[in-house]
Amino acid sequence: MSPTKPLPADFEWGFATAAYQVEGAVEEDGRGKSIWDTFCHLEPTRTKGANGDIACDHYHRYEEDFDLLTKYGAKAYRFSLSWSRIIPLGGRDDPINEAGIAFYNRLIDSLLRRGITPWVTLYHWDLPQALHDRYGGWLNVEESQKDFERYARVCYERFGDRVRDWITLNEPWIVSVFGYATGGNAPGRSSINEAATEGDTSTEPWIVGKALIMSHARAVEAYNKDFRPSQKGRIGVSLNGDYYEPWDSDDQLDKDAAQRRMEFHIGWFAEPMLVFSSLGEDYPRCMRDQLGDRLPQFSEQELALLRSAKEIDFYGMNYYTSQYARHKTGSPSKTDYIGHVETFQENKQGVSIGEPSGVHWLRSTPQCFRKHLARVYHRYKKPIYITENGCPCPGEDKMTREESVQDAYRVKYFQDHLDAISQAVYEDSAVISGYFAWSLMDNLEWSDGYGVRFGVTHMDYETLERTPKRSALALKQMFEARMKASRNTGS
Ligand code: PNW
Prior knowledge:
This protein is of the alpha/beta class. The chain has a single domain, classed as TIM Barrel. The protein is 43% helix and 14% strand. An eight-stranded parallel barrel has the order 1-2-3-4-5-7-12-13, surrounded by six helices. Strands 6-8-9 form a three-stranded mixed beta sheet. A hairpin with a 6-residue loop joins strand 14 and strand 15. Helix 3 packs parallel to helix 5 and helix 9 crosses helix 12. The chain is globular and about 55 Å long. It starts with 11 loop residues before the first strand and ends with a helix. Bound molecules: 4-nitrophenyl beta-D-glucopyranoside. The site of 4-nitrophenyl beta-D-glucopyranoside has 13 residues, from loops.
């Protein structure tokens, strides 16, 4: 066995969830509908028949879930707020739902009593349906950013005395592309998906992306101006994005394709949110080159806001997997959203990017994770918190509970990814300050329904019984050993 790779002694770690995936209680205590309620009840189903009506019933069982967090040794817990629980109709002049506020107060207070730090995501995909109906939701750049700012302010006002760590948006790329290009996620708009009845893949994702960038900026600006001075917290954003290796490592065009793919994945949001002013541009140049006027411009006034709002405290990274990218010839299609490349899990020589997991899009790729961490840190220069990382085990969707809790694949996945973090910190000089495993428990995996299990806790969806998997306590041991190793070496 190789010696334990260290992690910084003050490394923050825990588990993550998101409101719609775990809460249930969708009609309780005045909650308004979100676009996911609508999407999950479409006929024919676009979510394998699954919906979040009950989910893990976390709304009623959060104490039991937090007992697990305590048992697992978590120092921090990342969860999201349901906008339509707090403001059922969503808008800036719409009433606040005190019962929704009370629920999140109970959650926050229970975590603090346990000595667990709450990390709060404002938006994890569940736009109030009323805003979608009223003005097209994220398709309306002007309206949506104003409503998001007001929602953010309500959250800082009501919870910011106790919540110090804020994440504005979870994965704006997935919101834009899955929601408005492929139509695989709510609100399911697309012009290339036969199940979709409305949408325009050539324009809508880029409009929605701008609405999300501006919404993020306004929420950051509001925090920095009006709340940071007294609350002294931190704010950031969680971006997804795989690492890409060239399909043919001898072909410069494939090397360029891999970089371009990452610009379309990460740079789209990271440049305007984090660095654009230092490069003198808003979006990555390759995006402007390919998309032209379909990529919305920022006005001078908007640029000024972006410039001011790039003072955020951390880069939240959601990392699951990596792929190979191969360049395409000819001219890009108007519905292309990945930079005119093809992506593969095997390279030209047939070498797999990593071990297959329990879901088709995810192979275990720790060495690419290390490269990804170094690339993102040295490019965007913010301390990184890994806000999601995890996997389903091969075949886990068909396993009994007894089989599923013996999750050796997941234990190895975590070990390998923690080793990659150590290497990125101590060998590549990246600043990485925390880690959240996805997820505390099996939950509604969006359009994949309940079959794909990412939890460290097994969920019996009939009885709602929770059973810890081996990985839950294994993670605790891994973190303890790694942080102890750091103290011993004095690093
Ligand atoms: C993230 N992909 O989504 C989300 O933030 C979570 O809510 C979700 O449960 C988790 O990852 C696991 O999927 C993603 O297809 C969904 O590449 C799909 C992809 C990436 C991230």
